[in-house]
Design a protein that fits this description.
- The structure is a single chain.
- The chain has one domain: Arp2/3 complex 21 kDa subunit ARPC3 (Orthogonal Bundle).
- The chain contains eight helices and no strands.
- Bound molecules: biotin (BTN).
- The site of biotin has 17 residues, from helix 5, helix 7 and helix 8.
- It is found in: Cell membrane.
- Belongs to the BioY family.
- It holds the Pfam family BioY.
- Keywords: Cell membrane, Membrane, Transmembrane, Transmembrane helix, Transport.
């Protein structure tokens, strides 16, 4: 029974592999360093948003966990060709580890919204923005504060810089996904 639930069809495996590849490709662009905090502006987090939105909670989560498993093994798939446990547990670790839950939260929120018939462009954007941007930035800031031995407020304040870019990425993720959704990707 459990085996049946976690086993994937060839189609699903292909979709997951493609999503892992897309997230990796978005990491080819090196991050833009900010200088005053050790957290770059990246494009890769848009792939995490798309994973939850396009693939749904199950396949999106599998794709992101697989991606980060490869990173943990040392594959240089994070922005600018970085990888390994040292990177995952470094100053940006809070953002990276929060990504593990983003597809689940986006996917389940969208399903709930669809059930009640409230998912329009704007509601979809708000869901992606809340979980894919704001939630990640908030948890990332807590982790960052701990790493830098500072208090949460300055770490959170420095994250306000990311809100603008992440909002644009959420808009792009919704725009791309809504165009692609007619192709059946998630089961
Ligand atoms: C890494 O490659 O080490 C992860 C970097 C995490 C960067 C975070 S994700 C949310 C926020 N938006 C950005 O563009 N950068 C930060």
């Amino acid at each position: 029974m459990i085996k049946e639930k976690i086993s994937l069809s060839i189609h699903e495996m292909t979709v997951v592999a493609m999503m892992v590849a897309i997230i990796a490709i978005l990491g080819v662009l090196p991050g833009i360093p900010l200088g005053f905090i050790p957290v770059p502006i990246i494009l890769q987090n848009m792939g995490i948003m798309i994973a939850g939105e396009l693939l749904g909670p199950k396949l999106g989560t599998i794709a992101v966990w697989l991606f980060l498993f490869l990173v943990a093994l040392g594959f240089p798939l994070l922005s600018g060709g970085r990888g390994g446990m040292v990177t995952i547990l470094g100053p940006t670790g809070g953002y990276i580890l929060t990504w593990l839950f983003v597809p689940l939260l986006i996917g389940l929120s969208l399903r709930l919204g669809w059930r009640y018939g409230i998912v329009e462009w704007i509601t979809e954007f708000l869901i992606v923005w809340l979980w894919g941007a704001i939630f990640v930035e908030g948890v990332g800031a807590i982790w960052l504060a701990n790493q830098l031995r500072t208090t949460f407020i300055p770490a959170l304040a420095s994250n306000i810089l990311f809100v603008f870019g992440d909002t644009i990425k959420a808009l792009m993720a919704v725009s791309i996904t809504r165009r692609l959704r007619h192709i059946k990707v998630a089961s």
